[in-house]
Amino acid sequence: MKALGLILAGGKSDALGKLVYKRASAALPVFGKYRAIDFILSNMVNSGIYKVGVLTQYNPRSLMDHLGSGKEWDLDRKNGGLYILQPYLGMTGEYWYRGTADAIFQNTTILRRGDEDYVLIGSGDHIYKMLYNDLFSFHFAKGADVTLVVKELDETYDMTQYGSVVTNEDGRIVEIHEKIDNPPARKAFLGIYFINKFLLLDLLYDTVPSGKYDLLLDVIIPNLSKLRVYAYEFNGYWRNVKKGIDEYYKTNMEILNSKQLREELFIKYGRVYTKLKDYPPAKFTGTAKVSNSMISDGCIVSGIVKNSILFRGVIVKAGARVENSIIMQDSIIEEGALVKNAIVDKNCMIRAEQVLVGDFEPVVLEKWMVI
Amino acid sequence: MQNILGLILAGGQGTRLGFLTEKIPKPAVQFGGKYRIIDFTLSNCVNSGIYSIGVLTQYRPHLLNRHIGIGKPWDLDRKGGGVTILQPYSTLTESIWFKGTADAVYQNIEFVDEHQPEYIVVLSGDHIYSMDYSEFVYYHISKGAVATIACMEVPLNEAHRFGIMVTDIDNKVVEFQEKPKEPKSNLASLGIYVFTWDFIRKVLIEDAKDETSEHDFGKNVIPKILSTEKVYAFPFEGYWRDVGTILSYWETNLELTRPIPPFNLYDPNWRVYTKSEEMQPAYISDERTVRNSIISEGCEIYGTVDASVISQGVTIGEGSIIKNSVIMTRVVVGKNVVIEDSIISENTVIKDGCKIGIGNFAESTYDRKVYDSHITVIGMDSIIEEDCEIGKNVVVGNDRIVPKSTKLASGGYYI
To answer: Taking Cα atoms as reference points, which of B382, B415, B373 lies closest to residue B401?
Structure first.
């Protein structure tokens, strides 16, 4: 069995505010050295999927820079490898991607060429570690036409923000309610589809030309009675950082408090690959006081760092204090500055004695800002 | 840039590093948290614009071969040039090892010829330094030399440990003394050479026929050509360390933990590249604090770390104290362990309650020549079971299991 991977990474997310002024949400920096898309890319490669298309549209520059030739994921290959699928100008018309189904429909060439029989479709901004091989076996054992990955969400998730899935005893999906108030089930669809390639092509040709552009709403849901659509239950950690700044902040902070979670995300189920930067290891000087924090390569810490994540190359000078914050790559916190409940984007500088404190919501400092 | 080929001599065992180089050659020993010693020379090459490199291996090369691979981390996976591993080989008539530095180059004349270089840079894979070899080569060209030797001023009382050069006012070498009892100068050879290839090719062929020669550049080749040819000294003033002994290896590592270390790993224009393992950022718990230390990615630190170099993927348990030590990749330190003045090699497990490097110095009862300092060395892939007490200047071999509650007094050994 060979599968083609498709990663949807083009969506715009208004909820992320300043963090996505200049980047796609799939390129959001997370956990000190990664970007959100690293997780699904690594999952695919770790599951033996070596042909991956990334569908981009919104602010793709930093994402392109990150992906490069795909060599960090061993996707610089003669057969397969990484394909960037951006909207394009055609002979007969020019369209942006008008929805997920349309985005794939405009790139049917990658589906038709190649010897893969199946397609795995996922989103570039979801944080989880999963080897898809169990999903594949499940799909075949059930004789399914389409398998959707679902997860029982606890109270920490706002169910009105997710698609709610109702199944029968066999696991076959009978109803899907996309983002409604009072959903009938806490089983949420995680945006991961596994489907036969030729079936997908048929379905797309049936829907997209008639102006229906959404893969879930226009392609899957109307066909629930006709197709055998099954729900594969995923029990691991899963977060969608696209849901908003709060979710993004919470996701980053969560891993500080759980060793099990760090093991699940970074060690079990294969490593997470990302673009290398060749920084030297982190340096702690005599005045450093670091607790409950993650510190990346290239950091030089002389100040106090508490419950925080420092990305690569961050400098915290003596007497500076960083608390409950996320400091992105190459930012500098100078002597005596205080940063608390904040998300400081790349290449920022907090001058000596300056204060940056968020209250209920973390305060966000844009790229290249100096205060 | 001229057509230059780099040859890195990486076959040496490094006998004075003891068990650190029992299973791997000296250039493959870990250094500075995430590097191996050869990374510094390889990175110097690519930072200097030398993209054709031969690495000559001989002693236990497997880890080194895997580390270098096709040279991807150094951008040496190229269509033209790139990195080639040159191991000793057998021919129709004989099978021989590399007998000396000059012989190693002599046996690879065909490889060098294929690249048709004008100049070759002969480097050693076991030094920690950053040097722009292109300056070195331009100096060689500007002097019209056939051979140029990089050298550095050393304290006169240490000069007897080096190859010493006596130069005239133009830096032309007039005399070469190999480890002299009475040095005439304090200009020490760093074992780094530029040669004009056409010239040295002939000299190497002659030297190979000479049965009295030891086929060493420093001992035989350079003294032989001095009187008749233009041999120059290239004065180098930057940071350079030969980490050839356990004490100097330990000291050079710990130098990196100073507030402003003499060797700058952070220079964005002179990065040191290595084959990194993909690991998450280091996690520092709230139990204690980490000070004056280098902590690499993938670490989980619950104890105290002071003035130490911690490599990738190391776990340090609650209540443990690490001081003045070098801890290599994937070492697991249990709870309430004390480690002082020690080098712990790759993949070793130190279980709960162990005390390592405690007490006072005592002469080694195993090998006084190699283990001549207060540093305790624990070999790779070993296990130290619970509650062991290990003194200073103790050596534990590779692949050993030290049973529970073993007491090893200072100067002792377990091999």
So the answer is: B382
CA B14 to chain centre: 9
Q: Report angle CA B259, B263, B265 to the nearest 5 degrees.
A: 90
ipTM at complex level: 0.87
Q: Who's near A91: CB < 8 A, 6+ residues apart?
A: none
As a residue count, chain B comes to 415
Could you tell me the residue ranges of all domains in chain A? 3-266, 283-365
What residues of A are in contact with residue B312 (Cβ under 8 Å)? 281
Burial string for B140-176 (b: 16+ CB within 10 Å, else e) reads: beebebbbbbbbbebeeeebeebbbbebeeebebeeb
CB atoms within 10 A of CB B278: 18
Give the pairing type, strands B187-196 and B119-124: antiparallel
pLDDT score for A92: 74
Q: Tell me which fold the domain A3-266 belongs to.
A: Spore Coat Polysaccharide Biosynthesis Protein SpsA; Chain A (3.90.550)
> If you measure CA to CA, which chain B residue comes closest to A257?
B285
Residue that the structure tokens 């969506």 belong to: A11
Tokens 């190979």: give the residue: B208
Q: HEC states along A328-345?
A: CCCCEECCCCEEECEEEC
Contacts of A224 (CB under 8 A, 6+ apart): A173, A174, A175, A176
Query: Confidence class of residue B287 from pLDDT cuts 50, 70 and 90?
Result: low
Mean pLDDT, residues A161-183 taken together: 90
Give residue-wise pLDDT tens across range B181-207: 888 899 999 989 999 999 999 999 999
Q: Mark yes or no for CB contact A278/B296 under 8 Å.
A: no
User: Hey, which bits of A197-285 come out as E strands?
Assistant: 229-233, 239-240, 282-284
Say yes or no: A298 contacts chain B, CB-CB below 8 A.
yes
DSSP lists the bridge partners of residue A175 as A166
Distance CA A164, CA A185 (A): 6
CA distance A215 to A46: 26
Q: Confirm if A125 and A28 have CB atoms less than 8 A apart.
A: yes
Residue environment code for B106-120, b if the CB has 16+ CB neighbours within 10 A, otherwise e: bbbeeebeebebebb
C-beta pairs of B326-331 under 8 Å, 24+ apart in sequence: B326/B249, B326/B250, B326/B253, B326/B254, B328/B30, B328/B380, B329/B30, B329/B277
As assigned by CATH, the class of the A283-365 domain is: mainly beta
Could you give the count of Cα atoms lying within 13 Å of B353 in the half-sphere of its Cβ? 8
Once rounded to an integer, what is the mean pLDDT over residues B38-57? 95
Decide if B344 contacts B320 (C-beta within 8 A). Answer: no
Contact flag A272-B278 (C-beta cutoff 8 Å): yes
Q: Give the position of tokens 């004009």.
A: B196
pLDDT score for B1: 56
**269-288 in A: which are within 8 Å (CB) of B?**
271-274, 276, 278-288
For B49, other C-beta atoms within 10 Å of its C-beta total: 13
Q: Annotate B236-259 with b (16+ C-beta within 10 A) or e (fewer).
A: beebbbbbbbbebbbebbbbbbee
The domains located in chain B, with CATH, are: 4-255 (3.90.550.10), 283-414 (2.160.10.10)
Distances (CA, A) of B74 to A351, B63, B65, B272: 36, 17, 14, 9
- In whole angstroms, give the CA distance from residue A327 to residue A315: 10
Asked whether the beta carbons of A40 and A274 are under 8 A apart, the reply is no
- For chain B, the average pLDDT equals 92
d(CA B277, CA B415): 30
Chain-chain contact of B294 with A284 (C-beta, under 8 angstroms): yes
Closest by CA to A278, choosing from B369, B97, B270, is B270
| Partner residue opposite A295 with nearest CB, options B33, B284, B305 | B284
The answer to whether A254 contacts chain B (CB < 8 Å) is: no
